[in-house]
Each structure stands twice: as structure tokens, then as C-alpha cells.
Amino acid sequence: MDTIKKIFAGKLLEVKAIKLQPNNPFTWASGWKSPFYCDNRKTLSYPHLRSFVKLEICHIIQEQFPEATAVAGVATGAIPQGALVADALGLPFVYVRSKPKDHGLENLIEGDLETGAKVVVVEDLISTGGSSLKAVDAIRKYGCEVVGMVAAYTYGFPVAEKAFKDADVKLVTLTDYEHVVEQAVETGYVTKEDVAVLHEWRKNPSEWRK
Questions:
Q1: pLDDT at res. 106
Q2: Torsion over CA of 168, 170, 171 and 172, rounded to 10 degrees?
């Protein structure tokens, strides 16, 4: 698995799906300042990379969650990849909205999900874990079992690790912060001095450079 994490980290850096700017930080939707930005949706634009992500997520599901009878994608980032994975595995697919529609049937879960289904959730990115675990909660309230979650990338924040543990959700990812930073140093994308800044940010991202 470590080999896959290293390979995928390199691929994300290659297509600039991950950007590291220690000296010119980004502002996340949450308002946090960050030297690190990840946009896994870029992988969808490259057929070879799109297929790589699909196949590796399928392998993880087959090895870690073979009991899964349905796949759920978290809106909106994980909808395309989740659908590709479900198609490859021959399983039903649904996606979970961040909030119910304000019209029509006011659905929170889109698609047909059988009561009692064993669902594996596909996510594109884990930061604090809040939106991902809201999807888990919605599926559970629907009367289904969440057997686990597979995500393309995680920042590995302690707050997220605690949240997943408290929610009793097993999380497996294709790559993570450590492997991306390691690859970024190896390729000269960032300096070792930059790494110190990145590590400092990761310790307390909500308060960094306030």
C-alpha cells in the first residue's frame, strides 16, 4: 500500500492536482490559511490517471470491504469517481448531498439504496472529516450499514482521525500528506526549509498565520 501511496502522490504532483505554496498560502473555504491545496478533481481530466484511481479504489474495496453491496459517493467531488468504481464492481451507486434539495422530493441521498445495504463510501479528500462523516450519518439514518470509506487523499489532521475513530468508520486512502511531502522533496518541488513550514501548519491548521 505504501508503494501505491508514493506512486499516486507523484501523479498528483505531476498534474498539479496538489499545490504547495509555503510562502504564498491559499485561503480555504473554511477561512483557514494553508500552504497546501489539493484538487483531486483534476485527475478526471487524464484518462490514465482517472483509470488508475478507479482501479486502485476497486482493489481496496475488494480487499478491505468485500462485504459491500453498494457504493455511495460524497457530493460533489466524489460523485464521478464513485460512479466509475460502482460500475467497475457491478454495484448499485448513490450519492449523498451536503444538505437536502430545497425543492422536489427534497432528497439527501440521490438514487435507490436498499434498506440494510452494506455501503462503502467513496470520498475525494479528507480534511477535518466533517462533511464525509455527515454522509456516513445520513446513510446510517437511512437504515443501512457503512462498512468503511475509501478516499483519494487525506491531510491526516488529528481532528479528522479522532472524528473517524469516534464515528467507528474505517478509512483507507490512496495517498496522504506524508507521502505527498516526501515526493515533493524528492522531486525538488519544495525545499527542506519549506517542509518545516508545512509541518508547522499541519500541527494547528485552524490557527496558522492568523
A1: 55
A2: 170
